[in-house]
Each structure stands twice: as C-alpha cells, then as structure tokens.
Design brief:
By secondary structure, the protein is an alpha+beta fold. It contains 18 helices and 24 strands. The record marks 8 as: Important for activity.
Length: 500
C-alpha cells in the first residue's frame, strides 16, 4: 500500500494527516498556535510557529502509524490564503506574517484602484483591490516599514513558507497565487502589467506551477527534523479553499461547496473564468488544471461563534469543563431551544469587516432587534442564522452568474453541528450533502500529491474513487416564508449601519 501526507496550515493550527492511496485516514495530528492583534483590525502570526507545528505533526503521524516511511510517496501542502510572508537572502523571516483577515490596507487598496482601475483589476486578477489579499499587504509594508521592504528577497504564502522549509525551494501554485492579486488568472501566471504599474520587482515572487506539479523534494535537514525520507516529492498543493473543495469532490461545474470554518465560503467550479463586475465574489484559479472557481467569503463564520463563546459564555465553559462535554455541543443545544428567527434577534457577522457581498473592511458587527423577551439561547441561534444569511448572500450572487447548482455539499467545523446544518439548509432552501472526507483540505492536497507522483490519473478520477456522499440534510419547506422575511430584514440592515 502506498501512502500520502497532507499538511493543512490553518489559522488556528496545523493539521497533519496520513492517508492511504484509497483516501482512508491512517493518522491525524493537530498543533495550534497564537494569532496576534497589535491593533484593532490587524492580524498577524509567526511563520516559525507554523513550521514547528508541521514538524511535530509529521513526526507524530509517522511514529504513531505502522507505516514504513519509504511507503509515503508524496506530500501535499494546503494553507490559509493571502498571508504575507517576507523572507530575506538568508531565508530568514523579516517580520510576522500579516494574515488573511487583517484589514489595515484600505489606503493601499485605494491606491491600487487609482493606478490600475477597478475594472482592469477584476479582468486581470479576478477581483477588485481587497484588504485581505497579499498585494495590498506588500504595499503596506513598503509604505510603513521601508527598512523591512528593502530586506525582501522573496514573498511567500503561508503554505509556501512550509515548502521552503521542507525543500529549500521557492515556489507556489496557481490556486493560492491567484489570491495574492499579482497573478493574471486568465494566463495562470504573474501579471507583468500589475507588477509594473505598481513598481514591484517580479524577482521577489516565487515560480508558479499548476497544483499537481512536483515543486521540490524533502531535504536532508527536513528529513532529520520530520522523519520523512530524503527526496520525498512535495507537490504544488493548494490554498485551503481549493484544497478543501477537492477534498469534498468539488471538481466539476454544478457541485457547490459550503464551508463553515473560521471564515465561511461558498465555492463553485467553472470551466472558464467568470467575473462579477462589482468584484463581490472572488474569481480564482482552481487547483484542478484548466478549471477556475468562484468564491464568496463571509469573514466571521466560525469566528463569530468562537468570539461569542469566549466573551459571553463563562458559565457554559465552566459547565463544559466540569461535565467533560464539548462546549459547542452545549451551545448547539441552546440554539435548538430558540425559534427560527431567534425571537427577533438578527446578527450581522461583521467582526472583521466583510468581503461578500459588501467588500467593506470597516463595517462592524451587530445584534439587532433585542427586547426583554430574548435570552441567551436566542443570541446563540442568531449567530448561526446570521452567518447562514451571509452565506446565502454568497450563494445568491453565484446563482446570478448563471452557475448551475445540482448539489450543495457542506463541510468545516460548523458542519459538525446538526442544528447549524439544518439552519443552513432551511435558509438556503436546498438540501445539503455531507461527505465522508472529514479531513477536507489535507485530503485535497494528498489527492494532488497522488496525481503528481502518478498514483492517480487525474484529480477528477481520484475524487470519484475516494469521495462518497454521506448523510443528507433536507430543507424544511415550512420555514421558507419565515426565513425569507428574516433574510429580507437582514439584507436591509447593512445600508443602515455601515456608517456607524
């Protein structure tokens, strides 16, 4: 039996998963790390923390499985998208990584739009200038930390820093690179036009490959640290959303993915690049060769529930610890006690601004419609509903782009909640399918690695073999009118609160 290793460098931690060639999980390891917020709206992490989590994770899955290391045929890398990692000539980190949810770059986005133009940016990069994307972060460093900018030898994404540590190679791939806003997604290569207009030296960018290409091999030093064999191939991999889509079998048009992670994502595959003229959804290169994807993003999905838990649930946390019950099981039970519509409370999940559909880094979150009849259960449910409404905003835009919807698959931490899945199905008024591929992005990049090393003929054939549909959640048609009314109120709220 041959085996594949998938690394998923996420925001809260890194998941390392060893799979056999049939896609079965052999061993999993998780190691977390901190997120730093030096100022409101800023978000940073230390790339060295990611690396240590990877080293520990790889060692653990190798040591705790009965697999011969020589039978691990390939490594795939997935990671949080858009993060800015700056490396000097000695391959050392210059500063902490400014990660995807950071919102400090509004001025840089205005500058990009002024120099290149919104329509032109969307046509080349698939998106308007966005605070979350890598390019505006790079310009922020140039404007605010000129000494650090002068030290730059290469600009990398989070997973590509791990590639560097594993292989000593500077490389990226099309799915993650297209979230940097420096890639021409039509040609699937760096955009000379964007780089020249903004006076950015192309040599600071790594080589860009298709996601199934072997980009490097494990070095002796990385082998000593991790236990992997020297020269084990490392493929391009994918950004976490494209990787998760592959892990859920979202590789052809008509099958839509909904992910409720820290952020929330609606992901659809297309055979040609398609654009929203306002740039309210992202158009990016898919990790499947000759495919693209449309992606709507809710910044504060699982992030909202996690924030509420930490801020307003001391009693529930104590109960969880005393009884040995998962805190989220307690919160889900509370949400299920409240009525659809949360007894009038509407939650706007704009804790870190919002991407789809508003593209507004400054809008703030809110609970609206609170009265004396409301209790803690209503607040919890309103969060699940508010995030679901935001995801419906994304779905509505994708439908308007004439993307067919034959099936919607749901995954991510939030999808482990039965009540949240049911609310989402009721808000969407579509049935949802969960899939057996619980490891999501790690499985997706393991599949890419398998294609790269010749275990599978193609991404599509691997997915059809490995990924099977699981339980279905049917929508409650009796709630269509209820949620339609609440959704209308939800949509009316943004114009009224955006200037607060």
């Amino acid at each position: 039996m041959r085996y594949l290793l998938g690394l998923d460098i996420g925001t809260s931690g890194t998941k390392t998963v060893l799979f056999d060639e049939e896609g079965k999980t052999i061993k999993t390891a998780n190691y977390g790390y901190d997120l730093f917020q030096p100022q409101a709206g800023w978000a940073e992490q230390n790339p060295e923390d990611w690396w240590q989590a990877c080293v520990r994770g790889i060692k653990e899955v190798i040591e705790k499985s009965n697999v011969q290391v020589s039978d691990i045929k390939g490594v795939g890398l997935s990671g949080q998208m858009h993060g800015l990692v700056l490396v000097d000539k000695k391959y050392n980190i210059i500063r902490n990584s400014i990660i995807w949810c950071d919102q400090r770059t509004e001025k840089e986005c205005e500058y990009m739009t002024k120099v290149i133009g919104k329509k032109r940016l969307i046509k080349i990069t698939g998106n308007p200038a966005l605070t979350g994307f890598t390019l505006s972060k790079l310009l922020w460093v140039r404007n605010n930390e000129p000494d650090n900018y002068k030290k730059i030898y290469k600009v990398l994404l989070p997973k590509d820093y791990i590639r560097l540590k594993l292989t000593n190679v500077f490389a990226t791939e099309v799915s993650d690179a297209s979230g940097m806003q420096m890639l021409d997604i039509n040609t699937r290569n760096w955009s000379d036009e964007v780089l020249n207009e903004l006076n950015i030296d192309k040599t600071i960018l790594p080589d860009v490959y298709e996601s199934i290409v072997i980009s490097g091999r494990i070095t002796e030093k990385a082998s000593e640290l991790t236990g992997l064999d020297v020269n084990t191939p490392v493929v391009g991999g994918a950004g976490d959303q494209a990787a998760g889509a592959i892990g859920n079998g979202i590789v052809s048009e008509g099958i839509i993915s909904t992910v409720i992670g820290t952020s929330g994502v609606i992901f659809a595959v297309t055979d040609t690049p398609r654009f929203d003229k306002e740039g309210r959804v992202h158009t990016l290169c898919h990790a499947v060769p000759n495919k693209w994807n449309i992606m709507g993003v809710t910044q504060g999905a699982g992030l909202s529930l996690n924030w509420f838990k930490k801020t307003f649930c001391a009693k529930e946390i104590e109960e969880s610890e005393n009884l040995g019950i998962d805190i989220y099981d307690i919160l889900n039970k509370k949400a299920s006690k409240s009525k659809p519509g949360s007894n009038g409370i509407i939650y706007l999940p704009y804790l870190m601004g919002e991407r789809t559909p508003h593209i507004d880094p400054n809008v703030k979150g809110a609970f609206l419609g609170i009265s004396l009849i409301n209790n803690h259960d209503d607040f919890v449910r309103s969060i699940l509903e508010g995030v679901s409404f935001s995801l419906k905003n994304c779905l509505d835009l994708i439908k308007d782009m004439n993307v067919s919807i034959d099936e919607i698959r749901v995954s991510g931490g939030g999808a482990e909640s039965n009540i949240w899945k049911q609310i989402l199905a009721d808000v969407f008024q579509y049935p949802l399918t969960t899939v057996k591929a619980s490891e999501g992005p790690a499985l997706g990049v393991a599949i890419l690695a398998g294609v790269g090393v010749g275990i599978y003929d193609s991404v599509e054939s691997a997915c059809s073999k490995i990924i099977k549909g699981n339980a279905k959640v049917s929508q409650n048609t009796d709630l269509k009118e209820v949620y339609s009314k609440v959704y209308k109120v939800y949509n009316s709220a943004y114009p009224k609160i955006k200037n607060i």
